[in-house]
Design brief:
Blueprint: E1 11-19, E2 22-26, H1 38-54, E3 58-63, E4 69-73, H2 77-84
Parallel strand pairs: 1-3
Antiparallel strand pairs: 1-2, 3-4
Length: about 90
Amino acid sequence: MIPLPLPTAETCKFVVSQVRGGWRVSPHGDDPGRFADQDQATAFACRLARDRAQSGAVGLVIVQSNPEEVHGFFPGQADYAAARRPHLVSG
């Protein structure tokens, strides 16, 4: 079972799109330049999104192709369990 993202989970989105001379991944702080083909750009974006998921964020990759692709990376089950634990207040 794939858990649904928590409403408070951070989400990051990377878009892979075709540009003149290749494929580009955006947004990305350090522009990696253009990739020769769609597979290289998608693999790069998926690595970024997977790294973000390992840090607790939901990572999405949108590939603007025909057909359009969507890749999703979610924090692990332990992250969800910790977020769902009730906070007990004594008083």
